[in-house]
Design a protein that fits this description.
By secondary structure, the protein is mainly α. 61% of the residues lie in helices and 0% in strands. Helix 1 packs across helix 2 and helix 7 packs antiparallel against helix 8. The longest helix is centred in the N-terminal third of the chain and has 23 residues. The protein is globular, with a radius of gyration of 19 Å. It starts with 16 loop residues before the first helix and ends in a 19-residue tail after the last helix.
């Protein structure tokens, strides 16, 4: 693990800050998406049609990160924010977890696709390989950025009060509900999905990434890579089998790591790396 010096005069975010984080995250995303649901014609005429390249799309997607940065800066100032970002440099992790992220996740998608007689990789788009590579790179700056909030702030604060398993379940539930307005927004991939299987998938993924987060001692790098693997356009469509495979894997992971998943001892609880603590 990278050595991280304690930030000068930076104070740990108190537990009650989690309420502000969740409130601000939902206010940003639901406010933006809700505008296009409640008044679609007005929103489109004034701000343009919402799409994957629209600034509002990035704003809604980055809401957890924006909220996390605001919270960390408020409680830790510039030094605290710098220390918080240094968690991106924490790279040491068990080879088994590295293999799970880099090999296991793709194997789930390939296996799920194979179960419905599908391909082992997504088809090349009409625009060619270059377009797929560009989209793959762009995805790194979408979903993975959320992890500044979910694993950067919510996970360590919750683990001050509940076991990691329950922290993962709570975050997965909130994470899924946070996506809810997108299911009512026409023209998005969510519009054709069922919400409750999606919610179950979110809870499963949040539980799965929890032992990775704690094993890496609060790294933001590995949860981001985990998240990136989940949305890479090169993996085939494996629904609904990928959800069920991941659920089985999650049960096995929790059982295998039950000593650390069911007890708070050893769980990472710091938002801002350093010596100062504020658990109230």
């Amino acid at each position: 693990m990278a050595d991280i010096a304690a930030p000068t005069r930076a104070f740990q975010a108190p537990s009650y800050a989690l309420i502000g984080f969740v409130a601000l995250t939902f206010a940003i995303t639901w406010g933006v998406v809700g505008m296009y649901i409640v008044a679609p014609d007005w929103a489109a005429s004034n701000f343009g049609e919402i799409s994957g390249s629209h600034p509002f799309f990035f704003l809604a997607t980055w809401a957890p990160a924006i909220s996390a940065f605001a919270l960390v800066f408020y409680f830790g100032g510039g030094a605290g924010l710098k220390a918080f970002l240094s968690r991106l440099l924490v790279w040491r992790l068990s080879p088994l977890w590295v293999a799970f992220i880099l090999i296991g996740i793709p194997a789930v998608f390939m296996g799920g696709s194979a179960l419905k007689a599908g391909p082992l990789s997504a088809p090349i788009p009409p625009e060619g390989v270059g377009a797929m590579v560009a989209l793959t790179f762009m995805m790194l700056f979408l979903g993975p950025v959320e992890e500044f909030g979910w694993r950067g702030v919510a996970q360590p604060i919750l683990q001050r009060h509940v076991a990691p398993l329950w922290a993962g379940i709570i975050i997965g539930t909130v994470w899924g509900i946070w996506h809810l307005p997108a299911f009512f927004l026409s023209g998005t991939v969510f519009a054709g999905w069922s919400f409750f299987p999606f919610l179950l998938g979110n809870i499963t993924l949040a539980v799965l990434v929890t032992p990775v987060f704690n094993a890496s001692r609060g790294s933001l790098l590995w949860p981001m890579l985990f998240h990136w693997q989940l949305i890479l356009p090169i993996w085939p469509d494996a629904q609904p089998y990928d959800t069920w495979i991941l659920l089985v894997v999650a049960v096995a992971v929790v059982w295998w790591n039950r000593e650390t998943m069911l007890h708070r001892k050893g769980a990472l609880t710091e938002v801002i790396p350093g010596d100062e603590r504020a658990d109230q």
